[in-house]
Specification:
Bound molecules: adenosine-5'-triphosphate, magnesium ion
Largest sheet: 8 strands, mixed
Structural class: alpha+beta
CATH topology of the largest domain: BirA Bifunctional Protein, domain 2
Helix content: 25-40%
Shape: elongated
CATH class of the largest domain: Alpha Beta
Number of helices: 15
Distance between the termini: 51 Å
Amino acid sequence: MPKYARLKGTQDILPVEQPYWEHLRMRVAEIARAYGFERIDTPIFELTELFNRGVGDATDIVEKEMYAFKDRGGNEIALRPEFTAGVMRAYIENGMQVLPKPVKLYSIGPIFRHEQPQAGRYRQFHQFNAEILGVQDPLADLEIMLLAWDIYDSLGFQSLAFQVHSTGCPICRPQYVSLLAEHYRAHADAICDDCKRRVAVNPLRVLDCKQPQCQPIIAGAPKMLEHLCGECAAHFTKLRGYLEHLGKPHTINPRLVRGLDYYTKTVFEVWAEGIGAQAAVCGGGRYDGLIELLGGHPTPGVGFAAGMERAVMVMQAQHIAVPPLPAPLVFIAFLGDATARHAAQLLRALRQAGLGAQIAMGGSLRSQLRQADKSAARFTLIVGEDEIAQDVVTLRDMATGEQETAPLNGVAQTIVERLG
Ligand code: ATP
Ligand code: MG
């Protein structure tokens, strides 16, 4: 056993896994930019209070999952358990409210939640996240949903599906919530302990309870969609109309409520095959009340957060090929200590000429050539004493096995020519 092991729920992303991550990050950035989203990076920690308000005191995230602690200065801070609250704080604090609407932002980075670890569920994980601020029209909901969809689609994900629902707004939701709570109180002896608590603090959350005993109660519960106000119903109908027009299959999921209090109207998830029980790769929705709640001018918003570990799991489960990360083009091997400085000089010349190169760090020529093979370099340069005396080096094309003698001072040029 090594003396130190990684903490439960954390992972090392080793070099062999990196091609998946790099490919995913590239796709996210490419597509987000092509759709008019700009990147924003916010701190990994914020005042705990921001998340208490922005995520919601009565959510699992705040109640049970947040890494919150007092720092050495006595401030109550927390590692971010999601992006949105921090991005909204930055939007308000940096005066972005005066920017022409919509403001479209995306982020990529680590997220922290103290959860029970299992496949696809970790304590430190990564998300890509996107937000559209300042637009009330369901066209913004559509755009945010399409961004998520098109990222997965461009990665080659099979069997994608949208799950959609509406959780209403401060006008229609309270009435529905009291109907729901009434239904639950009538079945108080049949529901799980968590739901007993939820009914008191955050009744909507009973709808996504996974306990078997609660399933029949959920099935018999009143439906939010039957209690939407006119505006929310019209918003939902319009969004569904857009999706149908674009031929995007979607399932209405009356249990989709999200764990976060600030969601209004649209909620959605993207599901993909290949991750077993953790079927959601992405979740999002509208949060028209959030910016005002955090002290900004009332501003509508819609966004999503997508788990990157789950996306990588899908890529692997669905056998999606990802491009290998490029290795340095040239590997320099050398024979004998006296040639080391010539080899180092050559390394520098190649790099200055813009060619990726690395050098062997000692060992027999044989082991250096083995390293060259493993490095996936296209060319190997062999620097020997006899050659140096004649101002030449040996150039081996690793793809064809052909070997030639090249002038020491013109190697970069020769390599460029051989590349065509
Ligand atoms: P779940 O129901 O799976 O707990 P959630 O509702 O907590 O998800 P969000 O807060 O909306 O999820 O986060 C968005 C996405 O982030 C999820 O769809 C999932 O892909 C990913 N995600 C959430 N929690 C974790 C975790 N602990 N480990 C890895 N990925 C996660
Ligand atoms: Mg969760």
